[in-house]
Amino acid sequence: xxxxxxxxxxxxxxxxxxxxxxxxxxxxxxxxxxxxxxxxxxxxxxxxxxxxxxxxxxxxxxxxxxxxxxxxxxxxxxxxxxxxxxxxxxxxxxxxxxxxxxxxxxxxxxxxxxxxxxxxxxxxxxxxxxxxxxxxxxxxxxxxxxxxxxxxxxxxxxxxxxxxxxxxxxxxxxxxxxxxxxxxxxxxxxxxxxxxxxxxxxxxxxxxxxxxxxxxxxxxxxxxxxxxxxxxxxxxxxxxxxxxxxxxxxxxxxxxxxxxxxxxxxxxxxxxxxxxxxxx
Amino acid sequence: xxxxxxxxxxxxxxxxxxxxxxxxxxxxxxxxxxxxxxxxxxxxxxxxxxxxxxxxxxxxxxxxxxxxxxxxxxxxxxxxxxxxxxxxxxxxxxxxxxxxxxxxxxxxxxxxxxxxxxxxxxxxxxxxxxxxxxxxxxxxxxxxxxxxxxxxxxxxxxxxxxxxxxxxxxxxxxxxxxxxxxxxxxxxxxxxxxxxxxxxxxxxxxxxxxxxxxxxxxxxxxxxxxxxxxxxxxxxxxxxxxxxxxxxxxxxxxxxxxxxxxxxxxxxxxxxxxxxxxxxxxxxxxxxxxxxxxxxxxxxxxxxxxxxxxxxxxxxxxxxxxxxxxxxxxxxxxxxxxxxxxxxxxxxxxxxxxxxxxxxxxxxxxxxxxxxxxxxxxxxxxxxxxxxxxxxxxxxxxxxxxxxxxxxxxxxxxxxxxxxxxxxxxxxxxxxxxx
Lengths: 280, 435
Known about the structure:
The complex is a heterodimer of chains A (280) and B (435). With 280 residues, chain A is mainly alpha-helical. Chain A is built from 16 helices and no strands. By secondary structure, chain B is α/β, with parallel strands linked by helices. In chain B, the strands form 5 sheets. In chain B, strands 2-1-3-14-6-15 form a 6-stranded mixed β-sheet, sandwiched between helices. A 4-stranded mixed β-sheet of chain B has the order 10-11-7-12. Chain B starts with a helix and ends with a helix.
């Protein structure tokens, strides 16, 4: 299609698809642009008329209030620590487990693997009470460990890495063994670098999940100093923010989404590959 | 390998980082949002505006007057009960928490709140000074379980310019209905004269408003629909009559439709109808709008309690209180907590500038409260207002269930009889399965 577009030989079907794609893209983008517009209007003006977004004056006051009027930098730091920590943890654990399931022979391997996969079918809400109690007994609430550890049990990650390791020919291991490499060295130096595409996929998905997570940080990190960005920003809302503080509410939404946008811009190639890879 | 181990150890150290409470520190957990940019360092309570501004400056002023106490304020996403439940479950609740009066039963019944009466009196706060409505709301089994700070109620916010046009003003006051029949007649008269619906209501994505209006009109009929706090009685002619009235209002287009809370608020400000059914907290915004020129509410805003349509003048009320979750505390912390509560009680007038009704009879009767815009018109709610019986638990979900079923009946998705049967069944099922 690219060649046909370049040569100017575009059929009617292509034109229809292109027009539909553009229309859909506009439908997708408009609410976001509307939110950005609302975020740059005063709350008092929006209380009277939300269409005032289309005319001046605009203001950055709502963003100023977020930056100066809350603990946003602490929450941002917490979110980064939790998201990065959880991503690294998931990568480490899933890679080790995936390697074990793919390469090592041990009694009950298949049963354990199936048990791990069962985790995919259990929703978080079903276990949150007992997990909360367990973390409470271990004094892990209001700690970074408390915020990160639940996300590190990642059945999807184990499954993905297992399949990826299985796809690597065993001859690679055997060649390394002939060179006297230990099991760990084979894993660390030979096989792990070959799984980088899968690691990128898993890392990005885990990071996005951890960044957007609201439910567990809400009930585990209950001290303001331990709020993540999602919980912290929600805590700054007044009652009835949807009418009395609409501009501020939209500024919060835009602000919370910005880091993800930045991550997307830097890792766009990997994210597209990850999503298309997950779909095939 | 050494680098890897060092990194792992660093991660473990970071992961175990957390926060701890000092012996003279109290943790105050509240909703009402944050406004540090404007009020973060201010202590001039009398100049602060809005819930967040007044609450923030109050606590700042207390901290300034009590340098030996460290107050850590922890704002929570409204209403904060998920977090509180988690904190209680993990044995680490805050020292003071803002709570709706209607939610106190849920926690008190599980012995999660400390009784405050004796210590409040010792600190100089006399619960006999609370309004009758506030006292009833924080009293459970003969004890006081919270320091009330306000009451709020559903009100009639009125566009007097339209009322004048409809001939519904006498001696500068709005003419309000005295029976359901009169309400319908006046609503029709209003629509004929102005071309606008009589009511502006948030009917979409809204459940609480339906229930609050129903509670009010049942209280006016002296219907004890929670005679047993674990069973609601909704299948009665009185309840049916109220729903049929709201259904008629909907069918005849005497109300705005398909608007959520934000749209209805926006609509009332922009002249969408005559009466907006919403709570005390909007008085300040609408009053400010009435002072602008060339606006639908210009010099034409009034606010009234629900008019008396039946035998008794009554309005359903709720409100906010400070409660103290049960946990071990140092004597310094307990002392600091009651000093703060006394300070809050002494400044209840400042809080009433938010639009909420004061929790203290002396403030309600004070000249400065009655000098605030429109407050004298609604002050009587302190005596006519009534909460649900204090033994009724899960009042928030109960309100949601009843509201959902009412919405279905009013918009015609269910018959009134079916909606009432379903509401009764669902509420009773919820209350039967309480732990």
